[in-house]
Structures
1.
Amino acid sequence: MLHNKQWSLTILMVLAMLTWGLSWTNAKILGFYANAPLIMFWRFFLASITFSFVLKLSNSSFRIPPHAIPITIFNSVSMVSYNYFYFKGTQIGLAGTGGVLVTTLNPILTTIISSILLKELMKKKDWLGLALGLTGGVIILRIWEMSFANFYHSGNLFFILASLSWVSVTIITSKSKLILSFFPYSFWSFVFATFLSLPLSLNADLFSIFYFDWVFWLNLIMLSAFAMAFGTSIYFLASTKLGPKKASSYIFLVPLTAILFAMYFLDEPLQLSTLIGGALGMFAVYLININ
């Protein structure tokens, strides 16, 4: 029975990671229509509505105990931070490169920070994995030809900040299992994130999205209902069941699909540095997570 549950969770995580791979292309397309805060607000709003149906279908309670509110708000703050940097990065940078850089850095940075905060001992293979992963990140960034201006305008600065924000999401979520079940935790994380992102979008016309075409709406729904409501919630579940390191290891499935989707839909070039750095990063994640 336990094996069947783990297998089901594995399948769900693979599907979730595929939606995340596509999400980098979705975000790039949405960036042609509106700025990051506006897209971010509507993404959280639609994800909250979508996930309310998930709660009803699963017969889960909407109730959140008062003592669970602080950790949920902290998670929402981290989610808002991640989404802001994610949208800013894809607006000015390459979606495929962002998908590779962020998703290979996530498990590596999670391992470093969780080892410090949770006092987890690291083996030799973990140190080797970290070294390879950081080397891969340097290659993806093409650090040898990087000035600060280039670093900013390539979107890579935002991608690194997004990765750091997601580490916070992963670690906070792993702690939430002691306080609140993941269904109401996910729902209220989206709801609080909606309200937190509203002030950031006040400089834009909130209702301008209703004048956009079907391409915008298709990509917004993919980001909200699939990548966020489905993908993020499955990731939250895996974090509570498997722990932050194991859950983040599934992210290695995202880079390849992010590149392929960006090449197909956006005609983005495949840079050799991205391919080599991404391969090193994925091998690093494998090393860190093997027993």
2.
Amino acid sequence: MNCPLLYRFRVIDKLSEPPSADALKGTLVHSVLEHLFGLVRLERTSERAHDLLQPTWDELKGKTSGVEEMFQDVDLDQWLISAHSLLDRYFELEDPMSFDPTELEKFVEYQMEDGPMIHGYIDRLDIAPTGEIRIVDYKTGKSPKAAYEEKSLFQMRFYALILWRTLGKIPKRLQLLYLGDKNRLISEPTEAELVKTEGKILSIWSDIQLSYETGLWKPKKSKLCDWCAHQSICPEFGGTPPPLPE
């Protein structure tokens, strides 16, 4: 866990968090790409993707609460221009007319032995005619420095572990597409890496169970605190967490 107290706030207390313009932009671009892959190959052009952005935004903002407050300090026109720029970078990273994805926004889950039910959504799953599996995830931010690549790959190995345990086949390739700076992070997972990932998940689960038993959810200060919505009730910032729910 990055921060046990944040886990408590989100999972046990179920505290709401204000939406961010950056996160919403990521959702918008993901939705446009999902719509794009719903078209036949010849229609998956850059021009069509840009044409899809405005109606996709209209649909998204209609079902997102707090949009007006979100853009009080953010220029909406510039925000939309930056979303168009992310689409341009996507087309520089790959050609969506050259292949057909097997599944989009694929929900996967697996009940771990002596552990939790783990689950998640894979942005795109590509399965070659030869049976090789590729997991693709889009990131609208910039690629991590080399020292932080392993942390980014943990999420992808998490998905690969679920597919391995449910399908009996280790994915051939994990691919992160960073639209923020037009970079790729590619890995070919091994059985040893996935077993290690499984062990790490079980270790985290053990820590969570201990916190449940003791009622102690300690904050863990890091650079991620700068983006946390719960600083006012965090002891690291002079706050007091609410009582644990019954």
3.
Amino acid sequence: MEGGPVEGGLVLGKVFHKRLRPRAHAFRYDVPYFCVPLSRQDWFDRGGLVDLKNVDHGARDGSPPLPWMRAILARYALDQLCDGEILLLTLPRQFGYVFNPVSFWFCLDRESGLRAVLCEVANTFGDTHNYLVAHDDGRPIAAEEWIEGRKVFHVSPFLPVEGVYRFSFAVDQRAISAQVHYGDAEGLVLATGLSGPRRTLDRAAVLRRYVANPLVALAVIFRIHWQAFGLWRKRTRFHPRPEPPEEMLTR
């Protein structure tokens, strides 16, 4: 961890997917992300052409996301360890629209050490699920470490629900990285990641990255369907959508 508090900003993200089997498939896109501290509720519901909405995260009822996240940490006895800032890495609404395949909630301690990460996952069917990632003993999550968790939620129709995720994260003043690998009994199936340098988030940055490029939000959903079409053309096995899990969170 680089010295000093880890604050909010803009992340010039590079998103990549690399599918190894049963059909090889890969892509990489540049996507600008907001990275905002949840202690700053004034980041949310400001209005305007580019906006973060409370209703898009957490309880999704319009309530502030910080109390919701703190309650989850307390439920899993992580609240005393995660006694610092919580950063939300996500896409804002652009001209009223957003689709976030995954948002990451980075839960820090007072020394800016990463203790837990909530992965807030959505699919194109309107379902959402949360994965809480932390070491069993609560120790800080170091860069290059991998933490395993079972997959329980349907994301892509070209992957089964069954399997295992492996998570790796790095957060400091200069950059953010989140990697999620999916595998089965035979090994790695899909490697995904989001990483990028951190920049100041101000009016000029919003104008440059979002207002001057009005298709950022729409490009996300278009690219998802375009890549799905590519997998379909390769005759990748199709998995129908099952009912989502009753529990909204997996630890």
4.
Amino acid sequence: MTALPAGPLLFDTGVYIRFSRGENYLWLGEDPRVFQRTILTAVVAAELYAGTHDHREKRVLDELCKAHRALGHFSSPPAAAWIDAGIRLRRARSAYGQMDFVRHFRDLLIALEAAQAGATLVTENARDFARWKSLLASTRKTLKLFDPSKRKEFARG
């Protein structure tokens, strides 16, 4: 299997969902070194909590958050990041036209968190995040992206 990008990783919500359902990315649970360099943002955690179906799923997510906190790898966007996201969404609307702010706001917060941490954002939604990468680059912020669904060795198992 080809290695994941070096350095810290931040997984987007969709990757966690497919892993938890046993649909994809089973390698996430095989190598503790991957977990040890993974950052969980509160934005992704909130999306995951919103999608839980029962108390058991919530407890599993509680443990995931607890483990990330214990490693010091649980992040939450500060107030300045929320304001920055709003400003960048306005710029994006000017550049790209009408946008669904609700949908894109969380993605932009996730992108800002990954850039702030110097982490590679691992996402199946690389097309949308490429837009945020370009927008962040215009202000000298670097967003690194990795799409595991485009790589055969990462997509299954």
